[in-house]
Amino acid sequence: MSKKIIIVGGVAGGSTAAARLRRLDEQAEIILLEKGPYISFANCGLPYYIGETIQDRNKLLVQTAEGMSARYNMQVRTSNEVTAIDRSAKSITVTNLETGETYQESYDELILSPGARPVVPPIQGIQEAEELFTLRSVPDTDRIKTYIDEQHPKHAVVVGGGFIGLEMAENLRDRGLDVTIIEMSSQVMGPIDYEMASIIHQHLIDKGIQLILDDGVQAFEDHGRKVITGNGLEINTDMILLSIGVRPENELAKNAGLSIGERGGIQVNDQLQTNDPHIYAIGDAIEVKDYTNGQPTMVPLAWPANRQGRIVADAIYGRKAAYHGTLGTSIAKVFDYTVAATGNNEKTLTKLGVPYDVVHVHPASHAGYYPEAKSIALKLIFDKETGNIYGAQAVGMDGVDKRIDVIATAMKGGLTVMDLPDLELAYAPPYSSAKDPVNMAGYTATNMVEDMTQTVQWHEIDAIAKNGDTLVDVRNPHELEQGYIDGAINIPLDDLRDRLDELPANETIYVYCQAGLRGYIATRILDESGFHTINLDGGWNTYAAAYNK
């Protein structure tokens, strides 16, 4: 007897599951219910349609209800909201939002893919704010773009400095608006650590963005025309975009008695099955396992939802399939820069009490002698004892995406930092160097694993210099014109062997250069000469970015 499978929610997860189900079983009765007007759209492309980088709205619509129904021989009902699940009867209650009709539909298997909704906090005056927007769907996009096209606002406040907030800030700026970003934490882009985000902070300012950090919105006044921050700033504006995160759409599951995690995500096993064996859940609404540390987490990204859509279909048909967790590999364009990350950052590992080490390297995106090579700030987080990779972050104008993709692949493959130098990656001068940036990060981390070098971090070196310890800047004198660390003495690397007698023999010598490489060479010279040395990881580049020098 053929199965009757109902899918609640389309877009990435639900639509992928529906298509895979049909490919597995031509006889199954498949019903896809979506409360919105569109079953599959490019939600990651919405900011770029508002900014008019994407000009054809139809290109956002990946698949229509009619097209999906015809190709996969299934019922696709848009504007139909599932309001209740009767688990004992294996049926759902549905409301047709266009007609108001309510009806029941039975199921053999039920897949929940309701997604997530933007967080809208109870800020004073929010109900009276007239030009306040969130961005999650095509109708949201239409409202924002229509307002900009017809009302021609001059200024926008973006509340929240995450991926969507920064993408929208850029696209609003492209439309000619002055933009203020208000972020409650000390940095934008939560998946990366502070010193990496600092590169983006300066770039946003250079692009004319007013960036307000360590401050939140206290109130909206004058129907949203004035924003009051917790620190007392008053900002006059024409429109507000709330972009402070999303919350899983879990009410349907919760009311049905399905297990919900601490963060609000629907709990599932590795086959994406809830505590009801006939109900599955996928996408932004579920709690997943962090692939790196094994802890429960929420990761509302496109790749996990798409992958889960395929796996859940396989699981329903008894095929060997399991979802092993989410790395959280992510990327965003921020004006001229690309920001990407995978795995855990320092903040997460510190919170979990996991010991780790870090390396920062600043290689060129391709051969330096080939035009348009750009520096990449690449950070690798790892376990010095085992070489296991915990995470990586990169910021740069070119070549960032493929380096993070390589490291994400290495992490999924169980490779260690000692394996990264052995990766044979594609090389030609326009694309890379003979030693790719991933190789270089691996070499640097391997040196630490093998105790070839010791390092100190950017946030530790000032205290060391103020303590009176010896700090040697091995850059050439002209490089000091761009800045230096107070308390350092300058001995250029090429002069170091001839000036060893200027250094104290019985204390640790701290060394730094521009990016870390010459500092490492200096430590090898000094260590072989009987000194004990520690190199500033990432050199002046990392330090200067973190402190905006």
From TrEMBL:
Its cofactor is FAD. Its EC number is 1.8.1.14. One of its GO terms (molecular function) is CoA-disulfide reductase (NADPH) activity. The keyword Oxidoreductase applies. Gene3D superfamilies: FAD/NAD(P)-binding domain, Rhodanese-like domain. This is CoA-disulfide reductase. The keyword Oxidoreductase applies. Belongs to the class-III pyridine nucleotide-disulfide oxidoreductase family. Pfam families: Pyr_redox_2, Pyr_redox_dim, Rhodanese. Keywords: FAD, Flavoprotein, Oxidoreductase, Redox-active center. It comes from the Bacteria. Residues 465-548 form the Rhodanese domain. It is an enzyme of class 1 (oxidoreductase). It comes from Lentibacillus cibarius. NCBIfam families: PRK13512.1 (NF010037).
